[in-house]
Specification:
Blueprint lengths: L6 E6 L3 H13 L4 E6 L2 H10 L4 E5 L7 H10 L6 E5 L5 H9 L3 E4 L3 H41 L3 E6 L2 E5 L1 H6 L22 H13 L7 E8 L5 E13 L2 E8 L4 H14 L10 H13 L6 E9 L1 H8 L5 H14 L6 E4 L4 E7 L3 H17 L2 E3 L2 E3 L2 E9 L7 H16 L8 E3 L5 H18 L2 E10 L6 E10 L5 E2 L1 H10 L3 H20 L5 E6 L2 H4 L4 H12 L6 E6 H6 L1 H13 L3 E7 L6 H4 L6 E4 L1 H8 L3 H16 L3 E4 L8 H7 L3 E3 L19
Parallel strand pairs: 1-2, 1-3, 3-4, 4-5, 16-17, 19-21, 21-22, 22-23, 23-24, 24-25, 25-26
Antiparallel strand pairs: 6-7, 6-10, 8-9, 9-10, 11-13, 11-16, 12-13, 14-15, 18-19, 18-26, 19-20
Helix pairs in contact: 2-3, 14-15, 16-18, 22-23, 23-24
């Protein structure tokens, strides 16, 4: 489940405070929700028919509206909304009764960790069902298009089952001298074969059928008996296929000439070859991997990612950079001698190779990788009398029935190579078999990464423009934080802020963001720009009573007007600490700055927070925009309602995640003040958006 994707949740519970506690618990666990409290059949019926929901959580002791009635209503309306039942009772009896009732699972009220795991499982299952339904619709559409292509193909095509024509296209019908394809369909194949070749064709079809589904395409030559008594020789490509979900044999008679076939073969070879090494290229590897994945239920394969350590440095020092391709070609030629005829060896990256082998288990793959690593390491490359020797590392991924697609083993082999290269100093043969990290290991790794980033200052700021739909000349950017990992890649706050919170580092990070924002904005404003920044603050910073006076000092020291920065708090943090949030926003207002509320609209009563805190801006939760962009008919009404209420509270509204122009007219009609998203510009290193072109 995506940590940033908002779960659409229905809650059935007599206690509204318990419903709010559930929402807060989910947000704190990194699972934002848009929830509705249900207390009657009429309310649930209306919600189910108006919107799409991901999950429903209900308490078995609810009296205002019983869970059994809710489950029956969901089933009656044929909605895919998993019902998760909570109970105060101990033992297996309530679990059995809940499952019989139709709930997907039963969880004790006080077992939040269990509840989180079940929610994640059911949300993932729901997403997979959505993907399956989408795939089925796509499959039907592709089948329809394929049928049109078959019908209109210039090549003669027929499908044969049990010795009879199951389907023939128009070209096949014309080739056999018939006027209507109905005359051939359901006719025995032997009836159109000349008498002298009938035994040959019978024997061929029988043997071909017995060979199984993995048989290669075979050529069959025979003569056809035409209606005028003449013979017509034909050369047919025969392969196993399926038509209308029935296993069958396909006859294909191409209209292309021998010369064009030869040219196509040459072009295919060039297309699949890496020119520098003579090995296969990435495209060929992907095709081979897709085939390996298709066969993985019956035949395991392995993918080896072979990396050469310090290749450029070694070659440049001894021979010069111009010799890189020659050296790499020599290494590739030797590596090729270590493979068998069924192996696929390709050049993947600048200094990396990929090797795909068939019919190998995990232990065998690891042993083969160790042998390869030793053979390659022992090999001496000779270029015009100069010799070079390299160190290698190999990452291995096993392709089995759990492999979903051709890209997965590539990613796994690359990760295993990275791990193997990291152990190069500790072992003579740096070889690693891919193993998925446990969640505990991932969290520990992120915590260590955050600590190293704090110590070495590996944080950076990005800026995303916020554009007015109402003609305002004010320039706004939101400041977005990124952490840079050991390899220089940017990591989103969604992945590291919870780890930072656990080691007590969020307030320190927030203050660094504020100081950097003040410094950069001060320089930016010297060019005459009246730019405003929106800076996000964590829950811990909101709870820090020393922050507002510290901000006043920071503004004064930089000579920057305090109204140049708007401080943004999350709606869930405000609702969890209403009194503190009210005091904090009041103090921010006193120093001349203002506040914004982000991810607004997810609480049971969103407007309640606005009655307590002092804020000028409200950023609506991105799930509203995502629904609007997915052509959801009710999404426009939901946006209109929430924007209208916010305007009644005199709030400036911002809608994020605007990805295309199709929603602009709806947002403009709703009265939204500002928009933000990739349609305008993604986050960048500098405040360089041209607001004048959009005014």
């Amino acid at each position: 489940m995506s940590q940033t994707k908002t779960i659409r949740l229905l809650i059935l519970n007599d206690s509204r405070s318990e419903a709010e506690r559930l929402i807060s618990m989910l947000h704190n666990a990194g699972r934002p929700v848009r929830a509705q409290h249900v207390d009657s059949e009429e309310a649930l019926n209306k919600l189910l028919q108006e919107k799409v929901w991901d999950l429903m959580i209900g308490l078995d002791s609810s009296k205002s509206f019983k869970p059994l009635e809710a489950i029956r209503l969901i089933q009656r309306l044929n909605k895919d909304v998993p019902f998760l039942l909570q109970t105060d009772n101990e033992g297996t009896q309530p679990v059995v009764e809940g499952l019989k009732m139709g709930a997907v699972d039963v969880v004790r009220v006080d077992e939040d960790q269990h509840l989180l795991l079940v929610i994640q499982r059911e949300y993932n299952s729901r997403e997979q069902r959505d993907q399956r339904r989408f795939a089925e619709r796509r499959h039907k559409e592709i089948e329809r298009r394929n049928q049109q292509l078959l019908d209109s193909s210039r090549d003669a095509i027929a499908f044969i089952q049990d010795g009879m024509f199951l389907y023939v296209n128009e070209s096949f019908t014309e080739l056999f001298g018939q006027e209507n394809r109905d005359e051939l369909e359901c006719m025995p194949v032997i009836d159109v074969i000349h008498e002298k070749d009938q035994d040959k064709v019978k024997r061929f079809l029988k043997e071909f059928t017995l060979k199984g589904s993995e048989v290669d395409t075979t050529t069959l030559e025979f003569c056809v008996a035409m209606d005028d008594g003449s013979q017509r020789p034909l050369k047919v490509d025969v392969r196993k296929s399926s038509y209308d979900e029935e296993l069958c044999i396909q006859f294909l008679i191409r209209t292309s000439s021998a010369n064009s076939e030869e040219l196509e073969a040459q072009l295919a070879q060039i297309k699949s070859q890496d020119l520098a090494t003579g090995l296969f290229n990435k495209n060929y590897l992907l095709d081979a991997l897709h085939l390996a994945v298709d066969q993985s239920e019956n035949l395991n394969s392995a993918l080896y990612c072979i990396g050469i350590s310090k290749f450029n440095e070694t070659v440049t020092t001894k021979l010069g950079v111009a010799s890189s391709d020659i050296v790499l070609g020599s290494v590739a030629a030797y590596a090729k001698t270590l493979t068998s005829k069924d192996d696929v060896l390709c050049r993947y990256g600048e200094n990396t190779f990929m090797l795909l082998t068939q019919n190998v288990a995990a232990d065998g793959a690891l042993k083969r990788a160790q042998e390869l690593c030793k053979q390659l390491t022992d090999h001496i490359v000779d270029v015009d009398g100069s010799t070079l020797q390299f160190h290698y590392a190999i990452g291995v991924s096993v392709i089995n029935e759990t492999t979903a697609n051709g890209e997965m083993p590539i990613n796994q082999a690359l990760k295993a190579l990275k791990a193997a290269a990291g152990d190069a100093d500790k072992t003579e043969l740096p070889v690693k078999l891919y193993e998925p990290e446990s969640k505990k290991e991932q969290k520990k790794d992120i915590s260590n990464m955050v600590q190293r980033a704090i110590e070495s200052g590996r944080f950076k700021l990005l800026y995303q423009p916020i554009l007015s739909l109402r003609g305002s000349e004010k320039e706004h950017y939101e400041v977005l934080l990124r952490m840079v990992d050991d390899e220089g890649s940017e990591i989103s706050p969604n992945e590291f802020l919870s780890a930072a919170s656990k080691i007590g580092a969020t307030t320190k990070i927030d203050r660094w963001v504020v100081l950097e924002s003040i410094k950069i904005l001060s320089e930016h404003r010297k060019n005459g720009n009246q730019t405003h920044l929106i800076v996000n603050l964590s829950r811990e910073s909101m709870l820090d009573s020393t922050l507002p006076p510290w901000l006043a000092v920071a503004f004064k020291a930089a000579g920057l007007p305090s109204d140049a920065i708007i401080f943004q708090l999350a709606e869930i943090d405000i609702n969890d600490h209403l009194n503190v949030a009210a005091s904090f926003t009041e103090q921010i207002n006193k120093i001349g700055s203002s506040c914004s509320v982000s991810r607004f609209g997810c609480a049971l009563n969103p407007m309640n927070a606005l009655n307590h805190v002092t804020c000028s801006h409200v950023k609506i939760d991105g799930s509203f925009t995502q629904e609007l962009q997915s052509s959801n008919e009710d999404a426009a009404q939901a946006i209109n309602e929430i924007v209208s209420e916010l305007h009644q509270h005199d709030k400036i509204t911002i809608v994020p995640f605007v990805e295309n122009a199709s929603v602009l007219s709806k947002l403009w009609q709703s009265g939204v003040h500002y928009i933000q998203g990739y349609y305008l510009q993604g986050p960048t290193d500098a405040m360089n958006y041209d607001f004048d072109t959009e005014s």
